[in-house]
Amino acid sequence: MNQKYILAIDAGTTSSRSILFDKKGNQVAMSQYEFEQFFPKKGWVEHDPEEIWETQLKSIKEVIKCAKIDPKEIDSIGITNQRETTVIWNKKTGKSIYNAIVWQDRRTASICDKLINENKSSFCLESLIQNKTGLILDAYFSGTKIKWILDNVKGARKCAENNELAFGTIDTWLIWKLTNGKHHVTDASNASRTLLYNINDLKWDEELLELLDVPSSILPSLCQSSEIIGEAEILNEKIKIAGVAGDQQAALFGQLCFNPGDVKNTYGTGCFCIMNTGNKPVKSKNKMLTTIGYQINGKTTYAIEGSVFVAGALVQWLRDKLGIIKSASEIEDLANSVKDSGGVTFIPSLSGLAAPYWEPHANGHIMGITRDTTKGHIARASLEAIALRCKEIVMAMEKDSNTKFNSLKVDGGASNNNLLMQIQSNILNNCVVRPKITETTALGAAFLSGLATGFFKDLDTIEDLWEKDKLFEPEKEPSIDKVRSLWKKRMNQILG
C-alpha cells in the first residue's frame, strides 16, 4: 500500500493533538484533547504524564479513524512538544514518579538563587552556563526541575543512582510509551533546553551534571531532529518515528526559516520568537537564549530565541478568572469594540517575566484604569501587551545578530486573530506574514519526519509547499506612539 500521509504528534502545554498531513503539506485531519492543569502552590504548574500519554494516544487513534485511512498508509511520525517540561519515570514499570513539572513552573527559582550565591567566589556561574548551554540559570529549564524531583520525591535519588529511573521532556516520554520502552531518546533541540547539554560539543556536559547533581544514567540518548529513531506500535501497525523537535524549533522549520536572519514568532500559551543564526551559535548580549534550531544530515543549525511566558494564557486568564469573555475567540470582537485601549496598560507577568528581563518574581499589573475603563479597553490592552512583549524580543535579537529583519512570520492559534496581527505590525512598524497553514509547529515535525524517510525529497521540495495567507502591513495609527511610551514608562515603574 502506498504511503500517503505523515502523522504529526503535537504535544502542547494544554492539549494533545494529532494531525495528518499529505504529500502537499495539506492538513487532512486533526484530533485534539485538552488535559488538566494543576496548580498545587503559588508558582507551581504540573501535568499528569499518564493523562498526557492517554490523551495523545486517544487523539492518534481518533485522527486515523476520522480520516478513514488504514494505518499502513502512514509513512512516519513526527513529534513536537512543549519544551523544558520534565518527567521522571521508573524504567521497569514505565510509571512516572511525580507529576510533570511544566516549563511555566517557578518552584526552582530558589535553587537557581542558591547556586548563584554558592558559586560567587569561585567562578562566574552564569557565564559558565551561558557559554556551555546558551541559556541563563533560570527555573524555566529542565535541569533544576530534575534536581527538585530527585531531592523531594522519597527514594528518588537512590533509585536514580541505581539506574532505575529515566528522565525526559515530553518527546522522550511519548517515544518511550509509543515504542513500549524500547527507545529512551531525545533530539538536540530539546536537549539544548535542559541546562545539561553543551551546544558547542553537542553532548551532555559532565560539569553541568555535577553542578545540578543530576546522574547521567537517567538521561536519554541523543538523535538528530530528522532521523529514523524506531517504530511506534499503533493499532497493531508498526510506524517509523523519524522526526523530533521542540515545538518552537519545529515551527521555525515549518515556517521554512532556513536562512540566517529568518524570524518566526509562535503565538500559543506563550510567545516564542526565534531567529535562524546559521551554523555557529551567537552569544547574546541582550539576555536572549542561544539554542539548537535543528539537526539534519549531521549539520547543526543554531538559533537565537526570546520567550514571552504569558500570551494565549493571558486570554485564558481573562476568560477563566475574570469572566470578561466566555471563549478565547471573543477577545478580537471585544477589543475591536473600542478605538484604542483608553490609556490602559497591561503588564502580563502572571508567571514572572522572561526575556529580556528574566524577573521570576514579577507580578502582573493593569495600569491606567479610570471610571471610563471598559472590558473592551482591558481586552485591547491585553492584545497590545502581547505585541509589545514580542517587539522587545525582536529588537533584542536584531542587536545580538546584527541583522535587520524584513518581516515576521507568524503562526500558532492566536495568529488567527487579525486584530492582534495588525497591532503587532503597527507596533513593530514592519510586515507580519501569516501562512495558509498556521499549524506550522506540527507541519515542521511532519517535514522533519518526511525528509528522513524520503517522503519529502529535499528542502526545495518543501519550500514549494509553503503558501502565504495574509500580509499585515503597518498602519499609521495615532495611538500607537502613546501605547509604546506608556508601556516603557510603566514597565520601568514596576521593575524599579
Give an account of the 3D structure:
A hairpin with a 3-residue loop joins strand 15 (263-267) and strand 16 (271-278). The chain has helices spanning 49-67, 109-118, 125-133, 142-152, 156-161, 170-178, 188-191, 206-212, 247-254, 312-322, 331-336, 375-401, 418-428, 440-453, 459-463, 480-495, and strands at 5-11, 15-22, 27-34, 46-47, 74-81, 87-90, 100-101, 165-168, 185-187, 197-198, 203-204, 221-223, 226-234, 237-246, 263-267, 271-278, 289-296, 299-308, 345-347, 365-367, 407-411, 431-435, 468-472. Helix 12 (375-401) packs across helix 13. It has 16 helices and 23 strands. The N and C termini lie far apart (65 Å). It is globular, with a radius of gyration of 22 Å. The mean pLDDT is 92.
What is the structure about, briefly put?
The protein has 496 residues and is α+β, with helices and mostly antiparallel strands. It has a domain at 5-245: 2-Layer Sandwich (Nucleotidyltransferase, domain 5).
Give the SSE map.
Layout: E1 5-11, E2 15-22, E3 27-34, E4 46-47, H1 49-67, E5 74-81, E6 87-90, E7 100-101, H2 109-118, H3 125-133, H4 142-152, H5 156-161, E8 165-168, H6 170-178, E9 185-187, H7 188-191, E10 197-198, E11 203-204, H8 206-212, E12 221-223, E13 226-234, E14 237-246, H9 247-254, E15 263-267, E16 271-278, E17 289-296, E18 299-308, H10 312-322, H11 331-336, E19 345-347, E20 365-367, H12 375-401, E21 407-411, H13 418-428, E22 431-435, H14 440-453, H15 459-463, E23 468-472, H16 480-495
Parallel strand pairs: 1-5, 5-14, 9-12, 15-21, 21-22
Antiparallel strand pairs: 1-2, 2-3, 4-7, 6-8, 10-11, 13-14, 15-16, 16-18, 17-18, 19-20, 22-23
Helix pairs in contact: 9-14, 12-13
